[in-house]
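FW: tagging you since you asked about this chain on Friday. Here's the raw sequence from the shared folder, copied in full. Didn't touch anything.
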Amino acid sequence: MTTATGEKLLLELLDGFLGSKLLMTAYKLDLFTAAREPIARDALRAALDLPERSFKIVVDACVALGLLHEDERGVATPAALAPFLVRAPGKPFSTTTYLLEYYDEVYRALADMDALVRSDGAASPFKLRDYFKDDVDAIDPQVAAEYSRYMDATIARIVEVVLATYPFGQHRRLLDLCGNTGSFCAAIVAATPGLHGAFLDVPACVAIGRRQLEARPELQGRVEAIAGDVFRTPLPPGYDVITMCRSAMDWGDDKIGAVYRRVHEALPPGGRLLVIERMLPERVLPEALPMYLRGVYFLAKSESTRYRSPREHFALLQAAGFAATEALEPPRAPYEFFQSMRILVATK
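HL: got it, structure written out here
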């Protein structure tokens, strides 16, 4: 977060756009991989086959930003950045590296941002919007697979924090709504002896989840996959805890309020709904800036996605019939990019 004020603040914000585009462009050009070891500028330009002028502009700016280090040996990708910027076969999934490619697509969708604001997101060309179709059977399996790759790759540490915050051992049956491929549900069940679970999501995601479950015989008979629509598919009875992890934010108050009412009806007396989300502070705070900026991306993602504060969620939960609600603050954030996670517990 910048400490600049006045005109300097405006200029720093404008330069920030250029810095982001430079980072994504250099990554796409494989500049950082070509410079994984110190290399002379002439050799680097030859390896990348770039014009002299544009090469110099990009490399000079990367060095000035600290994206490249330069000394008498040449230029090189700094060791602290190499795990995220240098490509390698079989490299483990990195959220930061994924976002480099993902945000390149987001930037294109935000090119006409005034139109997004005026249309409340309806004018967005963002390709992953297809994941939010009203007809769940019409969702492109490739779009679902791309969306699920990120969700699956980032769930493990979120589960660790959730398990450190909430005791699932008090429950017998878990139903995870908008459960994607079932990775959250499966991880909670695997870590909780005696717990059985099910997850519900669109058919394209559940098909991936069923294939993943086939490779986990230890969960056979303990996790059920349900293909459907969280707004229309009847919620099965007999589950004493229902979860929504990283999904309530994707819907407007009318739709998520309707889901909360359906959950309340499906739960037995004393049953609980857990809403696991990043949540806004009750008033605007500068330290929550990454979440407010993420909200700008939401204009491209859909016509309904938004972060809420715990108080806003509580109002929707109480309107759905939940009498007792509380907010649990985890002991730590699962990721640097995933701050301000809360677990709301609503009891019927």
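FW: The domain at 6-91 is CATH 1.10.10.10 (Arc Repressor Mutant, subunit A).
HL: agreed, and The radius of gyration is 23 Å.
FW: great, closing this out.
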